[in-house]
């Protein structure tokens, strides 16, 4: 069973986390199931960038992103070559190391 290492994030998982995943499950689903509340303003429909993550290890094991995901990622804060929308990136049989960026863009969120 593959594992995902979530690197420490100041508010979502200050200590970091190592969790088990199931092949075919999205990174976001794994995070939410394990109490890591990554924002997902569009309810996982690939219509925002609030669930942006950076896959530090295992990136090449993921299916390629779609054109729609790439278009959305172009709007993400802190975009990197290994950036993905966690709602779209499906776990395969390889372990992943994932970093949740410090900021996300959510214009609809109330403060």
From TrEMBL:
Gene Ontology molecular functions: 2 iron, 2 sulfur cluster binding; electron transfer activity; metal ion binding
SUPFAM superfamilies to which the protein is assigned, alphabetical: 2Fe-2S ferredoxin-like
Domain 2Fe-2S ferredoxin-type intervals: 2-104
A UniProt-annotated Pfam family: Fer2
Record flagged with keyword Cytoplasm: no
Cofactor list: [2Fe-2S] cluster
Residue runs in coiled coils: none
UniProt entry tagged with the keyword Electron transport: yes
Protein name: 2Fe-2S ferredoxin
């Amino acid at each position: 069973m593959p594992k995902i290492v979530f690197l420490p994030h100041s508010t979502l998982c200050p200590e970091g986390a190592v969790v088990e995943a199931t092949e075919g499950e999205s990174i976001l689903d794994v995070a939410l199931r394990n109490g890591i509340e990554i924002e997902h303003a569009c309810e996982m429909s690939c219509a925002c960038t609030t669930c942006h993550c950076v896959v530090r290890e295992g990136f090449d094991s993921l299916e390629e992103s779609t054109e729609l995901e790439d278009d959305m990622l172009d709007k993400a804060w802190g975009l990197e070559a290994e950036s993905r929308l966690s709602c779209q990136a499906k776990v395969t049989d390889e372990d992943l190391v994932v970093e949740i960026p410090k900021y996300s863009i959510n214009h609809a969120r109330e403060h």
